[in-house]
Design brief:
Elements (H helix, E strand, L loop, with lengths): L2 E7 L6 H14 L3 E6 L14 H12 L5 E3 L12 H11 L4 E7 H6 L6 H7 L2 E4 L6 H11 L5 E4 L8 H9 L10 H10 L2
Parallel strand pairs: 1-2, 1-4, 2-3, 4-5, 5-6
Helix pairs in contact: 2-8, 3-5
Length: 196
């Protein structure tokens, strides 16, 4: 294995937007695999209640079932808390020195990147692939982030805008409203077990 795209997130719950991003990243980047990195305790969501890490891991596992090039990587569970993305990247680069890593984000996350823990170090450490989200055009967002992180390297992932978020889906699930296939049934079964 030579090239891996890392895909971090809370994944609460993971949905078809996440799955599409990962699949298209694999198709367009020439990567051997895309590794999903559920965050045990995302520092930027310290005040937000998220589902138990084990449940979110189980939901990701259910979502990527049948996609052999998509892999769950739970290394962040073993890292000191709070775990920042730059720490995860450094550990993986040390463990797999022959692998070339890149990182997949949405353009909304690209806009927030300068506020991530040790963002300058992260921008030096790894290039990014960016899926455009509504309201966050790639060129403008990249330019604004690069103004604060001059070593940032990012490329646009060609992807239709799927304007769906875990927050939106969580709210619908909490109100017992249909999610219209945006969360596959196999993931919903895990969600329902967690929230029984």
């Amino acid at each position: 294995m030579n090239r891996v795209v890392l895909f971090g997130g809370t994944f609460d719950p993971p949905h078809v937007g996440h799955l599409t991003m990962a699949q298209l990243a694999w198709e367009q980047t020439g990567a051997d695999e895309v590794w999903w990195l559920p965050a045990p305790a995302p520092p930027h969501k310290a005040r937000q209640q998220v589902d138990d890490y084990g449940g979110r891991v189980e939901m990701v596992r259910a979502l990527i079932e049948g996609y052999p090039h998509l892999r769950l990587c739970d290394i962040e569970a073993s890292l000191p808390k709070p775990s920042y993305t730059v720490d995860t990247v450094r550990v993986l680069q040390t463990l797999y020195p022959r692998v070339s890593f890149s990182f997949l984000v949405g353009s909304d996350s690209l806009a927030q990147l300068p506020s991530w823990g040790r963002a300058k170090e992260l921008a030096r450490a790894i290039p990014f692939w960016v899926a455009v989200r509504s309201g966050w055009p790639f060129d403008e967002t990249y330019a604004a982030s690069r103004a604060r992180l001059p070593e940032l390297r990012a490329q646009r992932l060609e992807m239709p805008i799927l304007d769906v978020s875990s927050t939106f889906l969580r709210e619908r699930l909490a109100r017992r409203l249909p999610v219209c296939g945006l969360v596959p049934d196999r993931v919903l079964r895990v969600w329902n077990k967690i929230h029984a």
